[in-house]
Fold these 3 entries.
Entry 1:
Amino acid sequence: GTVVVETCGGIDHLKVTDDADMAVTVQGNIEHADLDDGDDVVVVDGGRIEFLELDGGTNSVQMLNDGDVNHITGYGGTSNTVTLGDNHTRSIVLDAETNTVNTGNGDITDLTMGGTTANVTVATNSGVSLLDVHNDADVNLNVQGWVQTAALDDGDDVISLTGNGEIRSLDVRGGTNTV
């Protein structure tokens, strides 16, 4: 199904259950959005979500037109893909089989990823304060902006720095790694 959320004053809690596959467009403010076990697409189009929970399935989150999500979590399922816009995101925690984050021009304070594969692209005008990848996930990290600290567990990791990209502190714990 498709849901378009337009609010003037805001919604405290939006919950979608029963394995529904949803396309949700947020053009207003939501305190807490919880999407359970479906294959969900969330587009934050000029709106704001304080806390977004994605549980299971194949999920995609995209920020458009100054859209903003403060905290994002995604547990279980096949994949989580998050494409950020221009605003700062405080925390992203993703633990599906495959997790992908593409920054826009905004920064991320805390990016924590698990699963089997973690794909991260940090764009030219953005950065990540802390990137922590655990569960021996294989990491594909492309940094065009900056990462303050990257801690990567025992996966097989490929790290690329392009343009003025920089990682200020890198801790790689095992695996086969290419920098």
Note: The CA atoms of residues 35 and 55 lie 6 Å apart.
Entry 2:
Amino acid sequence: VALLVLMPVLIRPAVLEPMLKSMIQEQTGYQPSYGQFRFTLFPLPTLRFDAFTLKDARTPEAVYLLRADQASFRVSIVSLLFGKVQLAHAALKGADVHTHWRTGDGAFVKIVSLKRMSLDLWNVGSNRLVRFKLRGQFLSDAENVTAAGTLRADFANFQPAELDFRMRLDIQSLELKRLA
């Protein structure tokens, strides 16, 4: 009971926010930015960011990798008490993801986007088996993509060729004129 009463004193948002921002940059290699930051302790410790964006820190003018209306991260209380952030769950709502489509030799072809996506990730961490579920819009104005599965990656040294994942993917109608 004493620990529950002391948790708001031991876990301060002013300390937690820069720690999480640093962890996101270290784990993904991308610079996070956001509007409002909120931390709630009950019923589960959760960090919420409004207008969350990830961009390549080396090229500030680059297209963002991810922009979400809201990003929330549920964290482990035990890890917080030891000054570390360990994620149990991450969720994105209203997210747009942009990635570069490249040829086998690495030449740029086109930016491919998944829009208005909702994404849930469980057991998030480098070299851990992460479960995921997503829904979104691809080459359509309507939700037409759903996916679920698992992935494992070294987020700190991410190489797409080393991504280990299993996925069930369902894509409904596409508007091919959007590829042009």
Note: Strands lie at 30-33, 37-40, 46-56, 66-75, 87-102, 108-122, 130-137, 145-152, 164-171.
Entry 3:
Amino acid sequence: HFPAPMSNDRQYVFFQSADQQNRIWICTTEGLCHYDMREASLKVMNRNGKPLKTRFVLPYNDRLLISAKDTLLVYDSKRLKEVNHIVMHCQLMAAIVIGKDSILVTDNAQKIQLVDLKQGKVIKSPLPEDEKAFCMLRDSQGRLWLSHYGKGVKCFDHNYRLLHEYNSKNSAMYNDAVIQ
């Protein structure tokens, strides 16, 4: 028997990830859950007495970054708290760690921004100003891969210079709808 929000058969899973404590995190339309393999239990993550709704979780050092509707949260295995009072004015859709104290985030308008976690600031992305993304990934060589719905996939080097661009016009891609 699954706890709410996992009991709703009409839910949709947005994202899943694992952390260093062997928990599997599952983001659904109804809220965030985590499965603890040591305890063989599935638990709901609550914020203000309600299931925490989020689109992603991001392992970050020994903690977990969680996007909330209006802010970024950090979970350290004991408590959930805001990250340096960072206020987001949109729903975050994805994030990747790009430095010791910084992450790149993309929002529901596919705008990319840089978040300085230490200073608690949201600043301009190091990518070209018109660059957008639905999904962001780093490969084993540290290159940044972006997919923008309907535009294919782009690959950037460590200095955020465009290396490759693949879409239905210049490659064997069948369509340009690329999602994670």
Note: The two ends are 29 Å apart (CA to CA).
